[in-house]
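This part of the workshop introduces the protein records we will be handling. An example says more than a description, so a record of this kind follows:
>
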Amino acid sequence: MNLVSKKVLISEVGPRDGLQSIQSIMPTEFKKEWIAALYKAGLQEIEVGSFVSSKLLPQLADTSEIVKFAKTFEHLTVLALVPNLKGAQAAFESGVHKITIPVSASEAHSLANVRKTTSEMLAEVNQIVLYRNQIAPRIQIEIGISTAFGCTLQGVVLEDDVIRIAHSLAEMGVDEVGLSDTTGYANPEQVKRLFRRLKATIGERSGAAHLHNTRGLGLANCLAAFEEGVRAFDASLGGLGGCPYAPGASGNVVTEDLVFMFEAMGVDTGVNIEALIETRKILQQALPNELVYGMLAEAGVPKNFRIPSDRVVE
C-alpha cells in the first residue's frame, strides 16, 4: 500500500452522536471545554450537535449556543445534524459551516429514526438543497446513508438500493454522500465493495465513512475504506454513542484508536494523540456513569511510536 502523499480527515461526532445515545445530559460548560480540548488536540471538523426537538433529545437542547462557541475557533469546520427542513433553517441561522442529514437505506429504520419513508426523506433533502441554494449557498450539505450495510430492524439492505439513493442525492446537488454502518453489520470486504461502487457512481461527491465497532470490526472496516480511497472518517472520543433507534447499534469507532492506527501507518491526521487521550478526562468527569472505551488509552502510546520524518503529506 502506497502511503506517500496521504492524509485523512477525522470528523469528531461525539458531541452529537455520542451524547444523543446516552441518558446523561452533559452540562453546556463541559461541552465547551470538550470541544475546546478537541480543537487544541488538532481536530479540524467537529459535529457539535443536532437541530431537533429538545423534547426528543434534551441532551442537545443547547446546540445553538454550542455552535456559536465552536465558531470562535479558527479553521474549525462546525458541523450539525438536521433531520428536516425546519432543522436546516435553524442550523443555517446559527451559522454552521456544514450540515449532515441522515437518509436511511432501510425503510424500517427510516420510519423509526425520522418518522419518514426513505422516499419522503429524499424529498425533504431536495427541499433543503433548494433552500440552501437560495439562502446560504456556502454551507455544505453532507448526507450519511444510514444502515448502508444492514439493519437490525429490516435485516438485509440491498446494495443496489444504497447506490440508487446515493445517485439520487448527488443529482439533487448535495456536496457529499457517505456511508454509515449504523448497526455494526459491515465487514471489510463489504465496505470495500460498496465504497468502490459509490465512487464509481457519484465520483468526487463520495464522502465519509461512518463505521461502528459493535462487533469488533470498526478499525478493520476503516482500513478497508481507506484502501478504497476514502479520506474522511467519523469517530467518537471514547467510542461514545450509537443509534438510539436501531436496537443493539452501539459502538462508534474510538477516535483515539483510529488516529493511532493511521499515524502508526504514516498517514497524517493532524491530531496530537497524547492531547487527545487527555481529553478523555473531560468525558469521565462530566459523564461519570457512562462507559468510555478505547484500547490505546488503556495500553498507552508505544515507546517506539513515532511519525516517520520522511512522510510527505498533501
Observations:
- The chain has a mean pLDDT of 92.
- The beta strands are 9-12, 45-50, 77-81, 98-104, 140-146, 176-180, 206-210, 232-235.
- Residues 151 and 230 are 23 Å apart (CA to CA).
- Residues 118-135 form the longest helix (18 residues).
